[in-house]
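Our consortium's second objective concerns turning raw sequence data into structural hypotheses that experimental partners can test. To show how far this objective has progressed, the report includes one record in full. It was chosen at random from the queue rather than selected for favorable results. The single chain below, 70 residues long, was entered without modification.
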Amino acid sequence: TLSSSSAASDVYKRQVGSQWRYTMSGPASLDYIPLQHELDRMGLSEEDYDALFSDIRVMESEALAAMREE
């Protein structure tokens, strides 16, 4: 089992942190297509994949909250 918080931070910074979907009112969510592609390339077990995806969703939520405060 990998350290999901460290791996989530690495994937977010390296691959998907700039992949946002926008609406007329601003950022809405990460674009999950590049995220899923990156996770698939990592060859994770189903459990690790789900844990990492969940951690990145938490990061997404926090980033959206911070962007909306600006």
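The partners drew two points from this record. The chain has a mean pLDDT of 84. The first strand starts at residue 20 and ends at 23. Both points have been shared with the crystallography group to help prioritize constructs.
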